[in-house]
Amino acid sequence: MASSQQERMIALINGTPPVDFTRSIDPSAVRGKTAIVTGGASGIGRGIAEELAVNGAKVAILDITEEAGQNVVSGLKDKGHEALFVKTDVASWEAQLEAFKAALKWSSSGLDIVVAAAGVKSTDMRDSIVPASDSSEPPKPHTAVLDINFTGVWWTTNLALFYFNKFHASTPSTSFKPQILLISSLAGYAASPFDADYGAAKHGVRGLWKAIRAPDDSMAQYQANLLAPGWTHTGMTDAYIHKYIERGARVASVADNVRAAMRLLVDQEVSARAVCVAGSPEGVRDGEKRSGVFDVGDDMGTLGSGRVFLEKLGEGVFDHYLG
Ligand SMILES: NC(=O)c1ccc[n+]([C@@H]2O[C@H](COP(=O)([O-])OP(=O)(O)OC[C@H]3O[C@@H](n4cnc5c(N)ncnc54)[C@H](O)[C@@H]3O)[C@@H](O)[C@H]2O)c1
Fold this sequence. Notes:
Layout: H1 4-14, E1 34-38, H2 43-54, E2 58-63, H3 66-78, E3 83-87, H4 93-107, E4 113-116, H5 126-129, H6 144-168, E5 179-183, H7 196-212, E6 223-229, H8 241-246, H9 254-266, E7 274-277, E8 293-295, H10 304-315
Helix pairs in contact: 2-9, 4-6, 6-7
The protein binds nicotinamide-adenine-dinucleotide.
């Protein structure tokens, strides 16, 4: 039996009730807000950056891929939207700090939204743990995936919360609350065998989100949510996703992920929630039975995500998922 103090703590950490996907949202709530999107040159990050800019936010894209990032920004500016590209390696603290400062100088109106979408695909751990011959020395394992997909998100989160506390300490609770959206993955709930760096990093991002999802009374009252995409056709998966599709796997689109991300960023009734976007046998629809978009129920004090994933398995959401 939980004490009332434990119950209060659990309620604080669990945030708002599970996402109600039927409630309408107003994307124009981001008008005039300053947003930073890492990994905004491609795929899911690009989709979110463009949607924010089209709805009136001032969007700074921090990405390592300069040409693609500049093209996204030119495309937005040509249509009259406000956007900036800052070439950034998210794995470097110094680079991210300078990029945040450049973005804040450009917008000159504080910081309201941060989306941590930069990421790279996994390596295969077996390449470094299976000796090539009896005389082989252990090779030093790669850490790039951990450096970008976890440490990079750690830097982004620290910067976001620092500037939220700097700019929003006295923002009235009725105003648009600053938003941080971390991007984990289904691999943050069930890692693929030996895609160990990716699975560890995505579990790490989920753990980081759990630790920061409830601001305490001494802080700016930000909202922190988590997006957990399943297979999505983007630059990251382009080289191999057709193999899974040929075998019957269902994939989500960037637009499916952007729709879910916008709900998490704009719906002020949604805080400290995690949402999965998986391609489902009947296509992706928000919040309906058998749809691929659902609140993961990643709560403290309940069976949480395990129960929800089992329910979704029973509903057939993951039929053909592995192909
Ligand atoms: N595509 C999927 O199936 C899938 C599934 C689950 C989670 N995700 C996650 O979604 C996020 C977006 O991935 P995506 O599928 O859109 O891939 P993507 O390759 O299309 O986009 C990733 C972006 O991150 C940028 N990036 C990579 N390394 C960087 C670095 N060191 N510094 C700055 N930018 C860097 C890339 O240049 C690229 O623009 C990632 O975190 C990824 O792990 C993707």
